[in-house]
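Translate structure to sequence.
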């Protein structure tokens, strides 16, 4: 176990050190390899609160698709896990990492949002009798499309890394914001409506002030609006900002302070404003990915892929919105 203390400014460096130590222990000091990512080291963010860092980037054979963060909270009675990883093997690795910290039983795993790197490790938890929970809208989204996602992931990573990974139905569906006492420590599930996805949730440990933000926040990585509703997302970010979390664990990227909320909101604002301007100017859709450049975020992970897709999605949404506004005005004319 690696324990992080001191200022949050040193947190990312310590997370990098944890990964390097894992590589050295496994005889893999030459860069990220499948062997290095099989044994995530828990990074302590507060008393009883831990993060397991993903690699970032896109899923490939080298990182085994383990690109997203997960974490866990240790209470008096047991452990709550936040996000289950990419595969059955990844889920097993998360459980092994928890055993480095505590022998208390894992009582519940919660998946914050429906992305492959957070969902499919749930089969390992369920195989051990550990229930997995999703928000009800996320559960429906998972049932509708994750079979296809799993096939695509298997094609990308290969059969061996995905062995034992299977679709499943969550054991529990969460509806509204609520406080769970399952582990003997109050942990708040925050459902703030349609945000980064229709059923995306965040997990807040009330004792430490650590927020596991799931799909609502990424650090140094372009937020993906494909399933998102930007106005609702921004309202949710305002709610999170009012909570003043001590530390935020994003879906991707290093943990950090609450200022991350304003940074992600700024991206959404700039994306929205620029897309609306391009619609008003009559810009051709084929020109939009290049025309909607946001220099402030050009160094973020996935700028050349997710941001370009975001640009087209936002443009089409606002173009449709403008069309219906104009159609409505035509109907009301005498």
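Result:
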């Amino acid at each position: 176990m690696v324990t992080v203390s001191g200022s949050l400014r040193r947190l990312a460096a310590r997370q990098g050190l944890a990964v390097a130590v894992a590589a050295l222990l496994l005889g893999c000091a030459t860069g990220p390899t499948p062997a290095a990512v099989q044994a995530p080291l828990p990074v302590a963010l507060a008393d009883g609160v831990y993060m397991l860092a993903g690699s970032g980037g896109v899923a490939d054979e080298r990182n085994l698709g383990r690109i997203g963060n997960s974490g866990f909270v240790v209470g008096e009675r047991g452990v709550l896990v936040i996000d289950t990883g990419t595969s059955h093997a990844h889920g097993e690795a998360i459980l092994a990492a928890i055993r480095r910290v505590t022998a208390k039983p894992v009582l519940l795993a919660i998946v914050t949002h429906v992305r492959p790197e957070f969902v499919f490790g749930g089969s390992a938890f369920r195989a051990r009798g550990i229930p997995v929970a999703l928000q009800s809208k996320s559960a429906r989204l998972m049932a509708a499309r994750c079979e296809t996602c799993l096939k695509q992931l298997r094609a990308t990573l290969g059969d061996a890394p995905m062995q034992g990974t299977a679709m499943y139905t969550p054991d529990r569906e969460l509806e509204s914001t609520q406080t769970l006492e399952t582990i003997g420590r109050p942990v708040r599930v925050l459902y703030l409506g349609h945000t980064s996805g229709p059923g995306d949730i965040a997990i807040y440990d009330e004792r430490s002030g650590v927020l596991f933000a799931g799909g609502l926040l990424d650090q140094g990585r372009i937020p993906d609006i494909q399933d998102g509703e930007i106005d609702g997302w921004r309202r949710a970010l305002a709610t999170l900002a009012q909570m003043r979390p001590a530390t935020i664990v994003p879906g991707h990227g290093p943990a950090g302070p609450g200022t991350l909320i304003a940074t992600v909101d700024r991206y959404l604002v700039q994306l929205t404003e620029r897309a609306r301007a391009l619609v008003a100017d009559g810009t051709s859709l084929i020109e939009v990915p290049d025309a909607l450049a946001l220099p402030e975020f050009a160094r973020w992970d996935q700028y050349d892929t997710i941001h370009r897709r975001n640009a087209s999605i936002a443009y089409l949404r606002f173009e449709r919105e403008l069309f219906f506004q104009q159609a409505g005005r035509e109907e009301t004319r005498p």
